[in-house]
Write a structure and sequence with these properties.
The complex is a heterodimer of chains A (253) and B (468).
Chain A lengths: L2 H12 L8 H6 L2 E6 L8 H5 L5 E4 L2 E5 L8 H5 L5 E6 L10 E3 L13 H7 L3 E7 L5 H8 L12 E3 L8 E5 L7 H10 L5 E5 H6 L20 E3 L6 H11 L7
Parallel strand pairs in A: 6-7, 6-8, 8-9, 9-10
Antiparallel strand pairs in A: 1-4, 2-3, 3-5
Chain B lengths: L1 E3 L3 H10 L3 E10 L2 E9 L3 E8 L3 E3 L9 H11 L2 E3 L10 H8 L14 E6 L11 E7 L3 E7 L7 H4 L9 H5 L6 H13 L6 H29 L3 H22 L8 E2 L2 E2 L5 H26 L2 H7 L7 H6 L4 H5 L7 H4 L20 H25 L14 E9 L2 E10 L2 E8 L2 H11 L8 H8 L3 H5 L1
Parallel strand pairs in B: 1-4, 5-6
Antiparallel strand pairs in B: 2-3, 3-4, 7-8, 8-9, 10-11, 12-13, 13-14
Helix pairs in contact in B: 6-7, 7-8, 7-14, 7-16, 8-9, 9-14, 14-16
The chains are: A alpha/beta (253), B alpha+beta (468).
């Protein structure tokens, strides 16, 4: 064996600071979203600078669609009165409507789990096929990061497989371009039932910044989405929290 | 000045003699028809405009091979036909495919004989990467021909950029190719900022961000090459190094891919001294670990057996196809935008441009490894020379033609903007992957099919950047 490789192996073995992050560390971070506090005067500046139309301000109140937000934070910078704050957002929701938050209403979302039948069949071994429907490859960077030593999703029984025919879960990224539509339909058909379809990232949920382009504006129109993971792109720890929560891995721990 | 399309080959050859190279070519609508715009870059950037009579002109490809892709693109987007083009395979659009092959099917490779088989791959690949379709023609194991059919990531980004100049288009530019966000945004900002003097501190920080991006991309590629040659320990090690850079990115600007910090006129927020000190400390560790990683890989006979002489791109092919970036530098082409036309603070830092002559997977890995070391040195210089000062200034955007060219981790990235009446009327983006895909088609010939993933990973091309 090569001495360099041996050195790395010995160092990793002896090190007390093991890279894989524990559940408390992963749950210690959270996804953020802009939300107004009580001092908001509904001036509408934030809605004007929003490139994706995620924020809408009317007389009835302030509203953000996290499924359209690309986390560019231009809204927070534009706010003159400093009333937009970053607060914790849910890592995943099961219904598209739950991603819309209004001022004056609760921002808490009941985490929930996917349907019992699907969960029973899939059990504790989740085989994921990642499907890129035209994303900008930042989501791919984060999905690839899931398997590095810091996150190491395989310890939770979550695995990335090479073909949709081997998969239980389709993790879909990208706004679903018109060129990709037929391929996506065939991937959904090729995945054995019962399957779980996860829309990961703003593009897959709503088309995000590309909803005006040559896309179908997200995958909701072409497939039954079970889980929505907001974020542009969602951080690997957020993806892990979403998967653990949606498949109910946390309750038996 | 307006030329005729027949004069173009002579003019382009003329510029080539003076050290200019073709970086971009596109069609543009004018009130009474279309014009071809050819952008050449050398010491400066020159634009050649030629009027198209009707919707057809004589193809330049037979005389200037680098123009081939652009002419196919022009036909698909503007309907202007290059008569006499040798290879009019569809580039991105699915609807044109139907009209060419009589159905929504991808044409078979143009190669026939006993024992020759065709392997279709994609658009859903086995790895976590973008969508693209490949057709391999093989006789036994060796690849006789490989054709890439891309365009699955076509989102219409160029059209989305055609807005009034007062719009903040940086969020779109960041999402052209997510892992080359800084390079794309800097190129876009060059077209908006034009002659505006950017504060010095902002320029140093921009340089630092661009180099951090280069480091994490190259570390990811090295880890990918290790994984594809079945070296699990170096692959895990490389991915860990990359993750530490991504976490550093998050500390700097709150986003793991460095999105959201670049603005027209400078930066949206400053980087504090404590973060700068941490970057310096972390990078010194990464420098030693990268040397370690490369050493472990190159001392392994199984790796060298897979990497050396695999996927060779000759110097002649790299020049002919106008390959860019680390791919071209691994084939002996000395080309780097950071040296030729320094932007940000590249004129204030000293660095080498590593070049390898052999053009194989090993050369591309070596170039990337040495670029990581150079990038770390650039960042340390930036941190040392940075002085306190403003980080943002007001920007005045004038009408006219402006080009922004930067060196992304994948190579030369070009953004061209035509601004009329305070509005962008035509925006053209050329990612570094665009001219490198034909180079990949060229490099895999004669290699065995199982080596294709290694060759592909060593090129590290972007699907979304190519398709736009």
């Amino acid at each position: 064996m090569d001495d360099g490789m041996l050195r790395i192996a010995v160092r990793n073995f002896l090190s007390l600071k093991r890279p894989p992050e524990s559940i408390p560390v992963l749950y210690g971070r959270k996804m953020l979203m802009p939300f107004p506090n009580v001092s908001c005067g509904l001036c509408g500046k934030c809605a004007d600078v929003c490139r994706t139309g995620a924020i809408s301000v009317s007389e009835s109140g302030w509203e953000i669609d996290l499924g359209r937000c690309i986390s560019c934070r231009r809204c927070c910078e534009s706010c003159g009165s400093g009333s937009l704050e970053l607060i914790g957002a849910p890592d995943y929701v099961l219904k598209r409507g739950d991603l819309v938050f209004r001022s004056g209403e609760s921002t808490e979302r009941d985490a929930g789990k996917i349907g019992g039948d699907k969960r029973r069949v899939i059990g504790r071994s989740v085989n994921i096929r990642e499907v890129d429907t035209g994303s900008c490859n930042a989501c791919e960077v984060e999905v690839n990061s899931l398997s590095n030593r810091f996150y190491d999703v395989e310890r939770f029984g979550i695995r990335t497989v090479a073909s949709p025919r081997h998969a239980d879960v389709l993790l879909v990224t990208g706004p679903l371009t018109s060129n990709m539509r037929e391929a996506f339909d065939r991937v959904v058909k090729a995945t054995p039932d019962p399957k779980v379809i996860i829309a990961m990232g703003t593009c897959a949920i709503s088309g995000g910044p590309f909803s005006e382009g040559e896309t179908l504006g997200g995958i909701s129109g072409s497939a039954d989405v079970d889980v929505f993971i907001p974020g542009c792109p969602p951080a690997p720890d957020a993806i892990i929290r979403a998967l653990l929560g949606a498949f109910g891995f946390t309750e038996q721990r | 000045m307006m030329y005729g399309t027949d004069e173009l080959p002579d003019i382009i050859r003329d510029y080539s003699k003076r050290g200019f190279g073709l970086v971009c070519m596109y069609a543009r609508d004018v009130p009474d028809g279309h014009v071809l715009e050819v952008v050449m870059a050398g010491d400066g950037v020159e634009r050649i405009t030629a009027r198209v009579d009707g919707t057809m002109y004589r193809s330049l490809t037979s005389e200037i091979p680098g123009a081939s892709l652009y002419e196919r693109e022009i036909y698909e987007t503007s309907g202007i036909y290059p008569a006499g083009h040798p290879d009019m395979r569809p580039l991105r659009s699915r609807s044109t495919w139907g009209s060419l092959s009589g159905g929504d099917a991808i044409p078979h490779n143009d190669i026939f004989g006993d024992g020759i088989f065709e392997i279709p791959v994609g658009p859903i690949h086995a790895g976590v990467i973008g969508p693209g379709h490949f057709r391999f023609s093989v006789a036994g194991e060796p690849i006789l021909m490989m054709k890439a059919y891309l365009g699955y990531s076509r989102r219409g980004v160029e059209k989305l950029m055609e807005t009034p100049v007062s719009y903040d288009n940086a969020p779109i530019a960041e999402r052209i190719s997510g892992d080359n966000a800084v390079a794309h945004t800097l190129a876009h900002l060059q077209t908006v900022e034009q002659d505006t003097e950017i504060p010095e501190r902002a320029r140093f920080i921009r340089t630092m961000l661009a180099e951090l991006e280069r480091i994490y991309n190259h570390l990811g590629t090295m880890a990918g090459i290790a994984l594809d040659t079945a070296l699990a320990v170096p692959a895990a090690h490389g991915n860990m190094l990359r993750e530490s850079i991504l976490r550093l990115n998050e500390k700097i600007c709150g986003h793991r891919q460095l999105w959201g910090i670049l603005r027209a006129g400078g930066l949206s927020k400053d980087v504090s001294e404590t973060v700068l000190a941490e970057i310096e400390r972390e990078l010194m560790r990464i420098k030693f670990d990268t040397e370690d990683l490369a050493g472990v890989m190159t001392r392994s006979p199984s790796f060298m057996d897979r990497a050396e002489t695999t996927g060779r791109l000759s110097y002649e092919d790299a020049v002919r196809l106008r390959a860019v970036g680390p791919v071209a530098r691994a084939s002996g082409v000395n080309a780097d935008v950071r040296k030729m036309r320094p932007y940000a603070a590249y004129d204030k830092v000293a660095f080498d441009v590593p070049i390898c002559p052999s053009g194989d997977v090993y050369a591309r890995m070596t170039v990337r490894k040495r670029e990581i070391i150079e990038s770390i040195s650039v960042i340390i210089q930036c941190i040392n020379e940075m002085k306190d000062g403003p980080i943002c200034t007001d920007v005045k955007t004038k009408d006219g033609f402006y080009a922004g060219i930067t060196e992304s981790p994948r190579g030369e990235t070009v953004h061209c903007a035509h601004i009329e009446g305070g509005r962008i009327t035509r925006y053209k983006i050329r990612d570094a992957s665009f001219p490198n895909w034909p180079a990949l088609e060229c490099a895999v010939i004669g290699n065995i099919v199982p080596d294709f993933p290694v060759v592909n990973k060593s090129f590290d091309l972007s699907y979304s950047g190519n398709d736009l």
